Amino acid sequence: MELYVPILVLAALSAGFAAVNLLIAAVAGPKRYNRAKLEAYECGIEPTPQPVGGGRFPIKYYLTAMLFIVFDIEIIFLYPWAASFDRLGIFGLVEMVLFIVTVLVAYVYIWRRGGLEWD
Amino acid sequence: MSLLASAVLAAPAPTPDIPAPTIEYGLLSPMLLVFGIAVVGVLVEAFVPRAHRAAVQMPITLLGLAGAFILTIVVATQDITPASGQGWGKLAAMGSIGIDRPTLFIQGTILILALVSTFMIAERRTDEGSFTAQAAATPGSAAEREGLLAGATHTEVYPLVMFAVGGMLLFPASGDLITMFVALEVLSLPLYLLCGLARRRRLLSQEAAVKYFLLGAFSSGFFLFGAALLYGYAGSVQLGAIARAVRLGPGGQYATEVYGASGQFAQVTVGSNALLMLGVALLAVGLLFKLGAVPFQSWKPDVYQGAPTPITALMASCTLVAAFGALFRVFYVAFDGLTWEWRPMMWLIAILTMVVGAVVAVTQTDVKRLLAYSSIAHAGFILTGMIAADAAGLSSALFYLAAYGFTTIGAFAIVTLVRDAGGEAGHLSRWAGLGKRSPVIAGAFAFFLLAFAGIPLTSGFIGKFAVFQAAIAGGATPLVVVGVLSSAVAAFFYVRIIVLMFFSDPAPDGPAVVVPSVFTSAAVALGVAATLVLGVLPQSVLDLADQAASSLFVR
Q1: What distance in Å separates residue A1's CA from the closest CA in chain B?
Q2: What is the pLDDT of residues B80-109, one digit of tens each?
Q3: Structure pTM?
Q4: Does A56 touch chain B (CB under 8 A)?
């Protein structure tokens, strides 16, 4: 049972941290409401109301999300490889370089075709 | 201190090196080349100026496909004995990929058919090509007009096709269900995208892409769920291990070597039959969707109609071959011991596919939808050969796939040529009297239709004869009766189009036949030549299919 005590302490600490912060913000923070503050998310496109016909979705968000996924996946593979780099030997290194180069090709394509320019 | 903590705190044993997996680069070279060319194609898109991209992409794509075909032949001429000592072939890449004679036949067929489809993709004389100038622009908007006037084209089509073809090569070669799923996605995702790139009727094209994507994602889910249940049953996703688990039956035990820990074995207990049956059914849904068997056919007419016609040709030929190849491998290798269980299910699906494909085609008025329903009916005919579940059935299905692929690409190539002001003249009434205006094109189309109907002296006759013969030898005579009857129904609407083309008066504002460049001409000519040669002198290809099928899939 004593194994779980640190976890319980951590849970209590983080819940307390969140509660105290909310309390401080409610008591001490200035309240200047505007339209953006009342949105569900303060960035991105407005989720509601939907424009007639569904509206057009700015492609930039999509590109950024895709790029994020590409590198997210790369990191997922890099971590286990890095953790047992010495045990995987030359084969692991070569395979990893091949993998990174392939991902890099996608990156180069996006970069050259202007996918990284916001405007 | 509890037991768990002491186990965690104990000094870790020195970990041995993880052995490097062996990868047979020579055997995999056709696939590696196709994927390599696809990556080069992406780099071309990144660095070559817009004006020269098409001129660079087209030759490297064609050379890549031709080179991969030559490599396939080189692999096929090698002397490779599997671990079992019988037959021909090898499980490459630690059992993930099976290279054997049927697979090489399927891969060779896919590469040749992809090459011919690429001819159609490269055609620029019909309306500056079949692909949209700017896929991201709203149909009918100023941005679209701007792109059209600037003469922009999406040369990304070439690398996308190469990625799709690479996935198609891997799909029937997969030795385990995970590789097969990855291959399924690699072949599907570029196709979803390509479906939405039509130059004319862009809303229809985008609708096709969305429908294909949603239904395809759904069927991928079925496939994955089936794979998970089969893993629960067999304790492995390898097709050979699933076959072994089926032989052992529920409760049976087998030892499997733990990878990376030499000499250590894990004991696996085979799960209950409910897992197996559900797994087979769900996996079958995923595979049958891709080849458009009834009741999983609903996407096919919409997608075939909306997609750019060269892509429709690619899907109707290469994707069908790849999907059947994967179906053969799964059912002949993993579910080999279950033939009596899956056969009734396949009987029903084959009958439904043939009947629905043929009967619904009669009511179609759009030529691409008609060819889509014809493709559904043909999938049913090939399924009758597959049900025999022996070398003769496999051989006849392989021949049928190769023969049908050439014919259908030729037919779609002609569809791209018959055009009026709105692009391709899709409605069948517009084809009236075409034979009087352009007898050569109408004659070639009539020849393809006769091949679809299975008239002697065409490859369609030999193919149907072979699958029906194999089905009768396999004891599926009722299936053959249904097949012949639905062939007769199908022949009705094929002949109706021929009558329409040759014995009706052309409309005064009827469509004109575009004089194609050498590319589409080559696609049509190859289609006619293959349909004729495989119909008159089929023996060499039949022998090749026999030889491919006789050694069966490696396990």
Answers
A1: 9
A2: 888 777 788 888 888 899 999 999 999 999
A3: 0.89
A4: yes
